[in-house]
Amino acid sequence: MNGMRLRGLIRKEFLQIVRDPSSIAIAFVMPVVLLLLFGYGVSLDARHVPLAVVVDRPSAQAATFVAGLEQSPYFTPRRYADIDDAQQAMNRRAVSGIVWLRGDFGRDVLSGRTAPVGVWVNGVDANTARLLQGYVQGVWQNWLQLEADRSGRTLQMPVKVEDRIWFNPQLRSRDFLVPGLIAVIMTLIGALLTALVVAREWERGTMEALMASPVTMGEILLGKLLPYFLMGMGGMALSVAMAVWQFQVPLRGSLWLLVACSALFMLVALGMGLLISTVAKSQFVAGMVAVIVTFLPAFILSGFIFDIESTPKIIQFLTHVVAARYFVAILQTVFLAGDVWPVVLANAAALALMAAIFLGITRRNSRKRLD
User: Fold this and answer.
1) At CA 285, angle to CA 280 and CA 287, rounded to 5?
2) Cβ distance 186 to 266 under 8 Å?
3) CA–CA separation, 68 vs 86, rounded Å?
4) Nearest 5°: phi and psi at 88?
5) Closest of 348, 336, 201, 184 to residue 263, by C-alpha
6) How far apart are CA 170 and CA 247, in angstroms?
7) Antiparallel, parallel or unpaired: β 97-101 and 75-80
8) Helices (H) and strands (E) in the chain, counts
9) Chain segment 49-63, per-residue pLDDT in tens
10) Taking the C-alpha atoms of 231, 232, 233 and 234 in order, what is their torsion angle to the nearest 10 degrees?
11) DSSP character at residue 319
12) Where would you tag: which of 15, 55, 142, 231 has the fewest CB atoms within 10 A of its CB?
């Protein structure tokens, strides 16, 4: 390894980065665009859901229950005269559910008889349907407790549930999604930058000039790795800054631990990109392979949005070869829980192993030859 030649290669890469806006766009513009799109456009929360409310016979008890629905941040109640109108509204998807206070609801409550309440939920979106059903039950339990307190009696319930929510007490899906999105962004940055840049060298014929020069293959790979490693870490810093200051995601763990784990994952992503570049010598092919092999698994099989434990066993097994799975676990832990060392160390060890494998295979497959 010759230091002077290595410095020359690194300087050449930085000059190419400055002269090529696409590399800067991938490293710094793409993270901003993706974070804004996913941070504001994707939400797993069900808030202000349109809900039809039908009251057969108005009463004070029915009014207090409907008021509880109106005061909830999860619903936007819309009153309908009868159940037929409410059904038609749900058929048109004007509302996502129906709460029907049937019969003489108020008199049944005062007399201690069973007061029938019908709850119909649109199950096309199963996630929203489950959330909606749970929110209605929560409003119902609160109303029962208020009615018991108002009448001076004790609410008799066989089980009393005391909720305690750890790590994300506000139940904001953004706090869960944004850290995972950082892993997807870094996967794209690392894989695309190296895969496209090396393929571009082959297309322009400059790789042949490098092959004919005295530089070794190790110097060529290291000269490619270091500049784009720094660019990737710059994109990572920008993403973390936006997560904390723009989207108000708490960072409860150590910043230096986050930087160290991010550097480890960036080596994995760069190793995947360099490995792709040894196979694909066309920018188009390299870009397609990078998206299919790195971005899609990172998006679907990393736990970024979909819970891995809820997938079939064979899919759970396949996720172990997806590097983003381990980094998503680290990011969500460091951001929301703190420095939980058993989680961080186990996933960091997996990333270190994958970095060694990808970089080792790339080095073994790289030869100073044109075939």
Assistant:
1) 105
2) yes
3) 19
4) -65, -40
5) 348
6) 14
7) unpaired
8) 16, 4
9) 999 999 988 888 888
10) 50
11) G
12) 15
Q: Which two tokens stand for residue 324?
A: 């983003």
State the pLDDT at residue 154.
67
**Domain residue limits, the chain:** 3-42+172-365, 49-151
DSSP secondary structure of 120-184: EE--SSHHHHHHHHHHHHHHHHHHHHHHHHHHT-----S--------S-TT--HHHHHHHHHHHH
CA 358 from centroid of its chain's CA atoms? 25
CATH number for the domain formed by residue range(s) 49-151: 3.40.1710.10
Taking the C-alpha atoms of residue 281 and residue 278, their distance in angstroms, rounded to an integer, is 7
Q: What is the DSSP letter of 56?
A: S
Distance CA 153, CA 52 (A): 31
- What's the pLDDT tens digit per position in 273-323? 988 887 787 888 888 888 888 988 998 899 888 888 888 899 999 999 999
For residues 337 and 344, the answer to whether their CB atoms sit within 8 Å is no
Residue 108 one-letter amino acid: D
Q: Which long-range contacts (CB under 8 A, 24 or more apart) does 85-94 make?
A: 85/54, 86/52, 86/54, 89/52, 90/52, 90/120, 90/122, 93/122, 94/50
- How far apart CA 174 and CA 118 sit, in angstroms, is 32
289, β-bridge pairs = none
Are 51 and 75 in contact by the 8 Å Cβ rule? The answer is: yes
Produce one character per residue of 281-312: b if its CB has 16 or more CB atoms within 10 Å, e if not. Answer: eebeebbebbeebbbebbbbbbbbbeebeebe
**How many angstroms separate the first and last alpha carbons of the chain?**
24
pTM of the model: 0.84
Cα(6)–Cα(358) distance, integer angstroms: 22
- Determine the 3-state secondary structure of 252 from DSSP: coil
Distance between CA atoms of 118 and 295, rounded to whole angstroms?
Answer: 45
